[in-house]
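agent> Task received from the user: take the single chain below, predict its 3D structure, and emit structure tokens. No templates, no multimer pairing.
agent> Plan: (1) validate residues, (2) run structure prediction, (3) serialize to tokens, (4) report one or two observations.
agent> Step 1 OK, no nonstandard residues flagged.
tool_call: predict_structure(input=
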Amino acid sequence: MDGILQLAAGLAGQLPVFEAGAFDWENGPALPNFGTDGSGEQHDPIQQLIGWGQGVIIVIGIIGILFAAGKMAIGKFGRSDLAADGVGGLVWTVMGISLMLVAIPVIRAVAGVVGGS
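)
tool_result: status=success, residues=117
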């Protein structure tokens, strides 16, 4: 038992001692700094998610516009109520796409993400 105590006392003298004020802590919320790979391309999953979101918005917008155009085309054959519904759907589609595309810069500003397309 004395050997263990002597070993512990010897090791205790070799341990570094840190002062309380030696560390600089950052307590504010921040996004992590994503590094680059060997090709110089930055891997930022938040930017990738925003890019995917833009692609989904474009696909939804194209489908919505084609759907409204189809209603207007069918309405030309004597169903004026369907054509009017197609025009109303086109307005809602264009306004919805506009709001979604405006939301992307707002999200970037709030999240502090810089760059992108």
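agent> Step 4: summary for the user.
Helices lie at 2-12, 45-75, 80-111.
agent> Done.
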